[in-house]
Write a structure and sequence with these properties.
Strand content: 15-25%
CATH topology of the largest domain: Nucleotidyltransferase, domain 5
Number of domains: 5
Largest sheet: 7 strands, mixed
Structural class: alpha+beta
Radius of gyration: 30 Å
CATH superfamily of the largest domain: UvrC, RNAse H endonuclease domain
Number of strands: 21
């Protein structure tokens, strides 16, 4: 059985090419029918709402006691909206929501989502003196701690904690922390040669006169940081054990200082109660809602007591026990994760049929013990009930789109002459600018909907594809070889792919090979299709896979062995499904290309010089102040920079002046001939 992420958008996303921008649907503001449908689906319960744009990015995160009323208010009258909010509303393509038990839980969730997702329009609010952060300057020997409203990168080792919605509470928290722990109270010393009153009353450890070493002071700051990381309980246990040691040594003065710190923490915890229990534990929570045909599963990812993300799955529920459905979701989801991503605890709504085996497998994957618990205690059952309520809303939404997706899959099967309806369809696309930063995307649709947990990104490794020289055919062939080489090895060892594809066995028994697609779609025409088929022939998989390509200009479908495109209508459901897949693959490839291009542009040109590391780059820039000055400098001038010898200085010079290197090579060759 296959499962998929159930996103809250059901339809094609925008497409953006390297040179042009193509939109395949309107925003919600311009599509009244789709807007009305979305607003009907939103419940009148407390929770958070997430506004997404054309490229599936989160624009804004908000909270409300009644989600339906709050979201509707954005679309009633533009006169009541500020220019900034009106600009945001025009970009909304989808609306996602997460329900909670109370408005206070929605407040905690909103703050956490803003912290993790960094939505563009929430960022504007922060810059507009709305959401402050706490900054600790770990880059300094004696770090400072202060409140700031601009989260800009100072030094890489500095850390920001927040954002905090309640500014007054944040100021009281920081004041209480400074009373409880001896910290530097001033950004600059009050006196040049002596300490101030804060040192005398033990509010400051004498940083200005270095009465305390930098290492000891940073130990104090690490304890303070635990407060803003939500680890107050862990800090409390640490301080209690430290106070006990001081008492055993009869150092009652130090023990009394620790006691006062514990009292301060108790006051702090009274003001900042968490809505979710066991704040020191990271866990995933799974629950489902189902009818006689379909099951919708929700997986909430909770880290340190906070909800940091959620995934949605749908599954066939005909004659299926709920425990079996949950187990299949766990098997497929966790088989795709790296060991560090596995949580130490998984809460499930129903007991799993092979729970002991699953615990052993997850523990082996993680390298440490993983617990799978069907909770009975009240706190944990309340979390399960909350996840189940969210799953019930997703079930209703999935049922509405299921019939339309089934018709599209059936139409595609007739178009490609398939014996069964395709469930898993994969789309591939290439993105680059004249060969630079070439990347590829793999997107997956299951039952006609995006399954984002199966999306993959590829960096093109071929040396033939470089800035100024592009080859989409070669790039596509490389991606297909990398995607299916595991299956090729599996077939070479004597396994029957057809038997494995139709097996309903567990992920635990299929060596992780449970990602065989029913259809592979290539973004391009006959050229890209030919390159892909040649790659599949090298893997000996050309007879096993169903491959087609979708050309952009006329929306024509090409299949191997036929010179002409298939006869089809642009508006038929099967073509629309492939078009949505193509658009999503293109969006995903372009976004990854932009990310790679952005990272490259952030790097200094000096980083491309062989043998020149980050430290030497900093030394060069500190000495010459600019790259232009380095470019004009001679080898002798460059070699005067500390740490750069003549050989490395020559390397820097020839990087900016390759013609000099060529001239030197010619001189060497002439001398060699004369000799």
């Amino acid at each position: 059985m296959k499962h998929l992420i159930l996103p809250l958008q059901v339809g094609p996303t925008a497409v953006e090419s390297n040179l042009t921008h193509v939109s395949t649907r309107n925003s919600l503001l311009l599509d009244q029918e789709r807007l009305d449908q979305r607003l009907k689906e939103i419940p009148a319960e407390p929770g958070c709402y997430l506004m997404r744009d054309q490229e599936d990015r989160i624009l804004y995160v908000g909270k409300s006691k009644s989600l339906r009323s709050r979201v509707r208010s954005y679309f009633r009258s533009s006169k009541d909206l500020s220019p900034r909010i009106l600009l945001m509303v025009r970009q909304i393509f989808e609306i996602e929501f997460i329900i909670t038990d109370s408005e206070s839980e929605a407040l905690v969730l909103e703050s956490n989502l803003i912290k993790n997702q960094q939505p563009h329009f929430n960022i504007l609010l922060k810059d507009d003196k709305k959401y402050p952060y706490v900054c600790i300057t770990w880059s300094e020997d004696y770090p400072r701690i202060f409140i700031t409203r601009r989260r800009r990168l100072r030094m890489q080792s500095d850390r920001f904690y927040g954002p905090y919605v309640d500014v007054g509470l944040l100021r009281r928290t920081l004041m209480l922390v400074k009373r409880s722990f001896p910290l530097r109270q001033r950004p600059r010393p009050l006196h040049k040669d002596r300490t101030c009153l804060n040192y005398s009353i033990k509010r400051c450890p004498g940083v200005c006169q270095q009465k305390i070493s930098a290492d000891e002071y940073q130990k104090i700051l690490r304890k303070v940081a635990m407060v803003f990381q939500g680890r107050s309980d862990e800090l409390k246990g640490l301080l209690e054990s430290q106070m006990k040691r001081y008492s055993e040594r009869l150092d009652y003065e130090s023990a009394a200082d620790i006691r006062d710190q514990l009292k301060g923490l108790e006051q702090l915890n009274e003001a900042q109660k968490m809505s979710l229990p066991d704040s020191s534990i990271s866990r995933d929570v799974l629950a489902l809602a189902s009818d006689e045909r379909l099951a919708a599963v929700q997986l909430f990812q909770m880290r340190a007591g906070k909800l940091v993300g959620r995934l949605g799955f749908t599954a066939d529920a005909v004659d299926q026990d709920p425990g079996i459905v949950l187990q299949r979701v766990i098997e497929e989801h966790y088989s795709q994760l790296d060991p560090v991503e596995l949580p130490p605890e998984v809460l499930v709504q129903h007991r799993l049929p092979q729970q002991e085996l699953l615990v052993e497998w997850l523990s082996e994957q993680r390298g440490r013990r993983v617990k799978v618990i069907c909770p009975q205690r009240q706190n944990k059952t309340e979390i399960i009930e909350l996840v189940e309520r969210n799953a019930s809303y997703e079930l209703e939404r999935a049922k509405q789109g299921q019939e339309q997706q089934a018709l599209a899959s059936e139409d595609l099967a007739q178009l490609l002459d398939l014996s069964i309806q395709p469930r898993r369809i994969e789309g591939f696309d290439i993105s680059h600018i004249q060969g630079s930063d070439a990347v590829a995307s793999q997107v997956v649709f299951i039952d006609g909907l995006p399954a984002k947990q199966h999306y993959r990104k590829y960096k093109i490794k071929s040396n033939s594809i470089r800035p100024g020289h592009s080859d989409d055919f070669m790039a596509m062939a490389e991606v297909i070889r990398r995607r299916f080489r595991r299956w090729a090895r599996f077939k070479e060892e004597g396994a029957e792919i057809a038997k494995l594809c139709h097996s309903t066995g567990s992920t635990l028994q299929t060596q992780g090979l449970n990602d065989w697609p029913d259809v592979v779609m290539i973004d391009g025409g006959k050229g890209q299709l030919s390159a892909v088929m040649e790659a599949l022939r090298e893997l000996n998989l050309q007879e096993d896979l169903v491959v087609c390509s979708l050309a952009k200009q006329r929306e024509e479908i090409f299949v191997p062995g036929q010179k002409k495109p298939l006869e089809s209508e642009p508006d038929q459901l099967g073509i629309a499904l492939l078009r949505r897949l193509r658009d999503e693959a293109h969006r995903f490839a372009v976004s990854y290309h932009r990310q790679q291009r952005g990272e490259r542009m952030k790097r200094s040109r000096l980083s491309d010089i062989q043998g020149l590391g980050p430290r030497r780059v900093r030394d060069l820039l500190a000495h010459f102040q600019s790259i232009d000055a380095i470019q004009l400098a001679s080898v002798e001038q460059i070699s005067k920079v500390p740490g750069l010898g003549p050989a490395l200085a020559l390397q820097v010079r020839t990087y900016f002046h390759p013609e000099e290197a060529n001239a030197m090579e010619e001189v060497v060759e002439q001398n060699t001939v004369l000799f």
